Amino acid sequence: MSGTNRSNNERTIAETAIQIRPEKGYDGFEGWGTSLAWWGHIVGRWSSEEKLDEVMDLIFDADKGLGLNIIRYNIGGGENPAIQPNTLRPGGDVPGFQPEKGQWNWNADEGQRNVMLAAIKRGVDLAEAFSNSPPYWMTISGSVTGAVDGGNNLREDSYEEFADYLTEVVKHYKEVHGITFRTLNPLNEPVSNWWRKGNIQEGAHFSIDKQMEIIKKTALSLQLKGLSGTAVSAPDENSVDEVLEMLHGYDEDTFNSIAQINTHTYTGFGLAELRELAKVKGKKLWMSEYGTGGTGPHNHEDMSCVMELAERVISDLRLLQPAAWVYWQAVEDESAQNNWGFIHSDFRVGDSQYEITKQYYAMAQFSKFIRPGSRILITDDPHSVAAYDAANNRLTVVVHNQGGPRQAVYDLSAFGADRSTAKVYRTTERDNLAESELSMNSNKITLDLEAQSVTTVILSDITI
Predict the structure, then answer these.
(1) Which residue from 99, 238, 309, 443 has the fewest beta carbons nearer than 10 Å?
(2) Would you say the C-alpha torsion 65, 292, 318, 430 has a positive or negative sign?
(3) Of 264, 314, 322, whose CA–CA distance to 291 is shortest?
């Protein structure tokens, strides 16, 4: 292609405005979150209260940090103390509240509890409880890491007992700490066959018939205990397509026992199909877990995970259209030498030291500016998403550019604007949430998108 033709094509692309229409989107966005689990167990027991407060602000404070407003609390099973050496990864040994049959220890899990209370103090307003495994003494293998063959691991005579365990924890947190978990999920990636004894984390396989059994028993246990503020969510499979497969296999009583559909979006293609199924069934839909470490070697400045995170968030909001978007663990173990997470700390040491990763700023490009209550708007561009905050008359556009430098023009003529400038925030290999200003011309904004970048545009005093 000649240089002249290339220039003409680039000019044509730049002048093709991307439409943002207020009627094209969905309401009911509840916010952004993280599971606590392993990092909560470690960080919540740091010796330095000052360092703990810093991390809590970085994650949960809307002004000082990411402003995550949703937490998923992991009800630990608690590994069999007779298994030596313990195979669980650093932080993965989340304590259970029932170390032996008939014995309760409500002082257990101090770390996660400290983080949860600190998060609520900073504005977290939605909490879900979930389980990775039943207590070891309810399992067939005698271990919370899974069955020997990767199959069902909850003993046949323990389904009611497991439901009672989970709901008793929910009841305790409500009565003692004033925390109402809106949902409780007894499952985590249950159809997966990688939950085998000797694994490095808690996990339990449940075949579809056993999923239905524990879902119904958990819903009944909540009802019998008068815990009307808590409903069951499920099934939290690793893949969107696995979630669809499970839901299509559930009987009517099981579906009626669920108030919320949870899915992970690590893999799968049926995002739009799951969205429509949830709508038909009248169920709330959450993207309850996703995380990425990118493709590069361990490096706190890694950009491959930034690109993967931004692409996933935008794709999920556009196609799945969940009410909430929840990252797996905001803090990851530095000793694992990977690029997962927004903050790294060595879980083996627990010395109150931490480092912020590039992925932290990529998450901030979304969570700091698209706030709970916003209407998510579906643009004509697959690389961007927008949101309108009616309470603050604010329009936000986030665009992800994985390729080389390019321009993007957005047409805002469907909105009324009282000002001609916008704030721009950009994360690139060089910048972390760098702020600048942009002028609006003829109801259009033109963005010069850097290579490997995430850009957020904030327009205030915008009306529909």
Answers:
(1) 443
(2) positive
(3) 264
Q: What is the CA radius of gyration of the chain?
A: 23
Under CATH, which number does the domain 30-371 receive? 3.20.20.80
- The count of other CB atoms within 10 Å of the CB of residue 180 is 13
Paired strand residues for 324: 31, 286
Euclidean distance between CA atoms 188 and 435, whole angstroms: 39
Q: Give the span between the Cα atoms of 346 and 90, in whole angstroms.
A: 9
Strands (E) across 132-268 are located at 183-185, 231-239, 258-267
Q: Provide DSSP, 396-426.
A: EEEEEE-SS-EEEEEE-TTSEES-SEEEEEE
Q: What confidence score (pLDDT) does residue 15 get? A: 55
Alpha helices for 266-356 (secondary structure H)? 271-281, 304-315
Which pTM does this prediction carry? 0.96
Domain with CATH 2.60.40.1180 in the chain: 3-23+378-463
Reported confidence tier of residue 267, pLDDT bands at 50, 70, 90: very high
Which pair of tokens denotes residue 114? 């400290």
CA distance 392 to 153: 50
Integer Cα distance of 370 and 427 in angstroms: 16
Task: Walk across the sheet containing 18-19 and list its strands.
Answer: 18-19, 406-411, 444-449
Q: Which CATH architecture has domain 3-23+378-463?
A: Sandwich (2.60)
On whether the CB atoms of residues 402 and 9 are closer than 8 A, the answer is no
Q: What does each C-alpha distance from 205 to 235, 318, 443 come to in angstroms?
A: 12, 31, 54
In the predicted structure, residue 323 carries a pLDDT above the cut 60:
yes
Every domain of the chain with CATH number 3.20.20.80 lies at: 30-371
Distance CA 216, CA 198 (A): 29
